[in-house]
Amino acid sequence: MAVQKSKVSRARRGNRRMHDKLANPTTSIDPTSGETHRRHHVTADGFYKGQRVLGDNE
Question: Where are the domains of the chain?
Fold first, then answer.
């Protein structure tokens, strides 16, 4: 079993853990409805890349 040779300081431990935090999802604004949504996902109104893909298709 591996045993550390010396104590790891709080700074080194924190630097190692710095990349473990969760990032916020990237958001975009739909050009047609102006609604904020997750990238590469359909908006709540049913728009994707400025075109209506869900709901009332006329």
Answer: 23-58
Helix (H) or strand (E) holding 38: strand 36-38
CA–CA dist 32, 3 (Å, integer) = 59
How far is the C-alpha of 9 from the C-alpha of 16, rounded, in Å? 11
CA distance 31 to 49: 7
**pTM, two decimal places:** 0.52
pLDDT level of residue 33 (50, 70, 90 thresholds): confident
Tokens 């994707």 identify what position?
48
**pLDDT value for 14:** 93
